[in-house]
Amino acid sequence: MGTKPGRTEPVSPPPGPDSRTPCPELLAVAEEAFRGGNYELAAEIYGSQLAELPQPERSLCLRRGDALARAGRAAEALDAYTVAARLGGLRPEELKELVESCALAIREELRLPPWEPALGGGAGGGESSAGDEPAAGPGPFSPAAAASSSTLSAAWDLFRCPRCRLLLCDPVTLHCGHTLCKRCTDTDPGLPAGPCCPSAKSPPSRRDSCPSRVNVVLGNLLEKCFQTESRVRRLASQAESLRHQHELDAALHKYDQALDLAPGDSLLIVQRAELFTVMKKYNQALHDADAVCRSKPLWPKGHYVKAQALSGLGRTEEALKEFLYCVALNPGRGIIKKEAQKIMCEVFFSALENIHENLTSSFRSRTPYTRLKSKFMSNVNTQTELEDDSSAGCSKDSLFQFNKTLSQESDVYQNSDSSPSHHVLDLHFEDKKTTFKTALSNINLKRELPTDLEDVQNLNIPNKISKEDGETLPQIVPNTKVGESPVILVDASDFECSLCMRLFYEPVTTPCGHTFCLKCLERCLDHTPDCPLCKEKLSEFLASRSYKKTTLTEELILHYLPEELSDRKKVYDDEMKELSNLTKDVPIFVCTMAFPTIPCPLHVFEPRYRLMIRRCMETGTKRFGMCLADELKGFADYGCMLEIRDVRFFPDGSSVVDTVGISRFRVLSHGLRDGYNTANIEYLEDKKVEGPDYEELVHLHDSVYDQAVSWFTSLKENMKAQILNHFGSMPSKESEPQSNPSGPAWYWWLLAVLPLENRAQLAILGMTSLKDRLIAIRRVLIFVTRKRPR
C-alpha cells in the first residue's frame, strides 16, 4: 500500500517496561557510548538491562565488564566477568579489555606517553592478528627493544643488523643492497618470516633466498674494530642455533662463554634465562630475568621472561603482575596480551568454569533503571515522530537527549551499585576482588625505576649458574666500573676498490662477497661474467642488470671518511663533465650510415661499445655519433648524431639500443678512449636562402617530393612492405622546407630507402645546401626510374 504525502507510517512502540528481553535501542546507545569513550554511560546501560532480566545474560555481563574495565572500575569489572564465568566457561580472549585497562593504569603510573587502545565492539575482544607482531626481531619484542638491552654504544648504530638490531655477525649483503647477519638471512625458526629486510617492501626474490657469502670488506672491518664484540655475537648466534637444534647443554655452554667476554650484557642474560626456561630450570631463569628487570626496568622482554619463569614455578599471581607490566610497556604486542589474559583467567576464573548456579531470583527485583528506560523510550517515540528515516536508538540526537536525561536522574547513578545483583556479587566474590586488588597493588613501579644515585646499568651477573633448582643463588652486586665506548679506527685503505685502487664510489657487492665500484665492476663484466677476484661465475648477477649499491658501505664511508669521499666525488664529477661534452671527445660508433630523424636500431655486444652506451646513459646526454668505417682514418669525416630512446639488456650482457638521428656533424679530429673511438666535431646546418632563390627552392622541393611519391607508389607490394616495416611511412611534405636545420624529414627517409651505396649517401649527408641535395636526389630518382624493369 502506498503512503499519502504528508503522512507517516505508524511506528510500532518499542517493548514496554515489562519486557523480559534487553531493549535493542538501549543496547545500541550503549555500543555507541562505548565506541565514543563514554564507558561510564555504557556500563550503566548494560547494568540497567541486566537488572531487568529474570536471569543474567552472559554477553551483557561481558560487555558490562568491558565498559567497567575501561572506566577504571576494575574490581566491579571483575564482578561482571565472574557472573559471566558462572554462566559459562570464560575464555582468555574475553578478558582483553580488562587486561588493557590494567595496562593503561600502569602506563599512567609510569608516566609513559599516552596509549590509545583499539576500541573493541565485540564482547571481550578476539584473537590478536598476526599484524600485531613485529615484522622483524626475534620473539614478541620489537627490534628497538632488543637494541636497548645491548651494551653497544650509540657510536655503533651503523654496524647494527637492520633485522635483529644487534651488532652484525658474518655480514651478508643481499641483492637489494642491504646488509644483514648471515643468520638473519637464513630460514631460521628464531626469526620471523617476511621481506628480505625492513627497508624492502617486496618479498625476497629467488636471488635473495639463495645462500650468500659474507661481505669481505665489512667482515674484515668488524673484526678490526669490534674483535671481542664480534666474538660475543658469534657465540650468541651459535648458542641460538644449538637451542633450535635442541642441544640445550651445548647452547648453555656457549652463553656462558659469551658472558665471560661480556659480563652484564642484558640481552645475553635474558637469552640465557629463556634457555633456562626451556630447560625447566625456573629458579635460574628467574634469577637472570630479575637481574635484567632491575638493570633495564622499562625493557618488556625482561619482564616477559621473568613472567614465564614465575609461571613455571607456579607463582601465577606474580606472573600475572609481570605480564601486566609487560603489556603496559609494550601495548601493541598481541602475544603478550594473550599470555596475560590466560594467566588472569587461570587466577580468577578457573574454579568457576563448571559452575552454572541459577541466579534468577537475584535479578527479579526491579530497580530505578525502569524509570531510566521509560525516559529513553519516550525520547525514542518523540524522535520517531520527527524523523521518519532515522533510527532513534542509534542517532546522535537521541544519544544527546539520553545523556541529558541521565544527568537529571542523578539518583539512578547513586543507587545503581545497590542493585540485588551487586549484593550477590559482593557476598560471593569479595575474596576475589581482594585478591585482584592485591595483585595490582603489588606492582610497585617506583621502586623499580633507577634513580640518579644508583647505577643499575651494569650489574655483576654471574657468568655461570651451576646450582640446581631450589638451591641458593649468588647475589647480584652492582658493578661500579663503566665500560668505555671503543674507538672506531677506519681509514681509506679499508674501503679501497681492488680494480681502480681508489676509494669506493657507488660500492656494489657481488654474491661471492667482494665489493667494487659500480663502474669498475660493470667494465669487468663487459668482458667476462666472472668475479674479478675469485673468478666465481656471476652470470645470474649479470643477467639482472640492476646492481644495487651496498647501503652500509656507503653510509660508513660518508660517516668516517667525508673528506676522502668529497675528493672522490669531485674526480667522478670531473669525469662525467668531460664525458658529457657533445663537441669534444664525442663517442663514435663505427658501423653504418645514419640520417637525421630516421630510426637506427643497434645490437651492441662488443665490450667497448657496452661501455660507451652505458656512459651515454649515465651522463644523461644519451647521445653518440655514428660514422662509416674508413680504412685510412678509422672512420669517415661526416656522421650523424644519434639519441638513445630505449635500451634492452640480455642476460649475456649484450643489448638492443633503439636510437634516432638528431643532427649531422663533421669530424675535426679523431681520438680514442677506453677502447672506443672519439672525435672533436662541429655540427652542420643548411644555409638558408631568401627572395627569388627561396621561391626557386620551394618549387624544386615540391617537384622532387611529388617525384619521390610517384616512385614509391610504383614499387611492388612486397618491396613497399619491406621498406615500411623497416623505416616506417614516408613523412609528409613540410610547408616550410628550411624550418629544420638539417632539411625536411621526408628527404632523409627517401635517402635511406633508395638503393644507393654508402659512399654516395655520405657525400649527400655532408652537403649544407638543401638545393644541391634536392638536385642530387632528383638525379637518383630519374636514374632508378629509368633502370627499373618494365
From TrEMBL:
Residues 576-785 form the Lon N-terminal domain. Residues 161-201, 497-535 form the RING-type domain. GO terms for biological process: motor behavior; negative regulation of neuron apoptotic process; neuromuscular process; neuron apoptotic process; neuron projection development; protein quality control for misfolded or incompletely synthesized proteins; spinal cord motor neuron differentiation. Residues 119-128 have a biased composition (Gly residues). One of its GO terms (cellular component) is cytoplasm. Keywords: Metal-binding, Zinc, Zinc-finger. Residues 1-22, 117-144 are annotated as: Disordered. It comes from the Eukaryota. Pfam families: LON_substr_bdg, zf-C3HC4_2. The keyword Zinc applies. InterPro entries: Lon_prtase_N, Lon_prtase_N_sf, PUA-like_sf, TPR-like_helical_dom_sf, TPR_rpt, Znf_RING, Znf_RING/FYVE/PHD, Znf_RING_CS. Residues 129-144 have a biased composition (Low complexity). GO terms for molecular function: misfolded protein binding; ribonucleoprotein complex binding; ubiquitin protein ligase activity; zinc ion binding. This is LON peptidase N-terminal domain and ring finger 2. It comes from Sarcophilus harrisii (Tasmanian devil). The lineage of its organism: Eukaryota, Metazoa, Chordata, Craniata, Vertebrata.
